[in-house]
Structures are given as structure tokens and as C-alpha cells.
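Hi P.,

Sorry for the delay on this. The queue was packed all week, but I finally got your sequence through. Input first:
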Amino acid sequence: MLDARAMIARGRRRDAAFNILGWACAVVVLSALAALLTNLCIQGLSRIDWQFLTSFPSRRPQQAGILSAWVGSILVILVTACTAIPLGVAAGIYLEEYARKNWFTTIIEINIVNLAGVPSIIYGLMALGLFVYQFHFGQSILSGGLTLAFLILPIVIVATREAMRAIPKHIREAAYALGATRLEVVRHHLLPYSAGGIGTGVIIGISRAIGETAPLVTIGALTFIAFLPPSPIVVDPALQIQPFKWIMSPFTVLPIQMFNWVSRPGEEFLKNAAAAGVVLMVVTLGLNAAAIVVRHRIRRRIKW
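Then the structure:
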């Protein structure tokens, strides 16, 4: 009896010690993060104004802005989303609901999971050889968007499969019992019920893509650009509307603009980089907050 009580007491002491250690690690990490964010905000918030958001980069730090950078980020992420979301969701649905469970699909699943952990620079080298040199897309928005699409594609596939796998099996069985085809089951039952999880995975992937620098530098994204891509609604002299001319335009993005300013001497350029970092951080946190809201609302609407 005493031995049992002593073992229970030792276990409780170990649990308490582990709990204290976990809280201490969390406090250290959160304190360091808070210090970094506070320093970033102190340096950057004073620089953010309308002129900073609507001006092109300049050699004069007081006149420099992030107009071309945030427009380029939006266009690149637009191409990324239009490519990665349909392909990733379709691939996840096929692997989970249609593909046969054999050694070949097992190899594909293992490779997808492994691709999610591949360093982003590898995707940049792949895109440099494939999109820039082989397909001759050049250092364009299309090349950048496709590069980031391949980067987040494994994340979208895994999120889609996990969201569909979480749906109870009896929903599928009930739909099949009523005579629904596999396509109808996927379209009317599985996709609506898994939309929250899929949306969360997609937004997390987009949040990662918007902060990537290495693959875009590898394919030759510009570090200084003082013009915007052609507008899709502008009509050329021949009266021909070219809505996709912008997709082959050179570009830069917010992380690359920050890298350019950090590499320059002078305190004012560091303030510009900090201000761009604050903008990028707000966008990323906004996307993650949107993921939480979307997931919460979809789960409230769905009744099992």
C-alpha cells in the first residue's frame, strides 16, 4: 500500500515538474516573440502612412514605398490560389475517395507528406529549370505563382484528405443506401461537411506562400521595381482587351522588398523594412484569423 502511494506521489511530482517546465518554455518563447514584435512595431508603425502604401521604391528612404511590392504579392498569390486550390482539393478527393489502396497509392501518399517538408529553395530550383528555362515563362508573375502553388500543393492535399477522413463513415453509407452515386456523395455531402477543414488548410498554405522569399529570388524576381504590371482593363491602341497581359510581367513581393531594404546602409531603410514587415504580419495574421472564423461558422451550420 505504501509503495503504491509512493509511486502515485512520485508520478504527481513528475507531472508537476513537467507542467512547470512546459510553462517556463512557453513563457520564454512568447517573451522572445513579443520582444521581436514590439521592436518591429516600434520601428515600423511610425513609417506607415498613405504615402508609404502608394509610392514606388526609391533610393531616398523618406520617399520609398511598397506599392509595387504589395500589388505584386496580391497578383502572385492570386495565381497561386487559382492553381493550388483546384489541383490540391481534386487530388485529395481522388486519393481519399477514388484511388485504390495499393502499393502505388501508398508511395504517392508518402511522397506527398515528404514534399510538405522539402525546403522552399528546392522548389525555386525546380521552377528555375522548368518554368523559366524549359517553358520560357521568364521572371514573370506566372512563374512566381506556379512556384508557390507547387510549394503549398502538398499542404492543400493533406488538409483535404484529413478533412474528408474526419467525416463519419455512416454519412457515406447512408447516401449510398439511398442510391447516390460516388460523385453525388462527394459533391452534396463530403465537400460541404469538410469545407471548414479544407478552407483552414488552404488559408494556412496561402499564409505560408505570402511570406516566402527563397524560391522567388531563385527564379529571378526583381529586388527593385518602379512600375506596376499592365492593368487587365486597359485597352491597347488596336482596341484589343488583354486581360492576362499582366501575368507575364516582372514582379517583386513584400519579402523581397524587405530584403532589399535590410541590405542597404542607413537607419531609414531599416525603418522601411520594419514597416513592410508590419504590413506583411498584419496580412498573415488576418488570413489566419479568417481561417478560424470560416472554420467556426461552417461547423456551426453543419449538423451531423
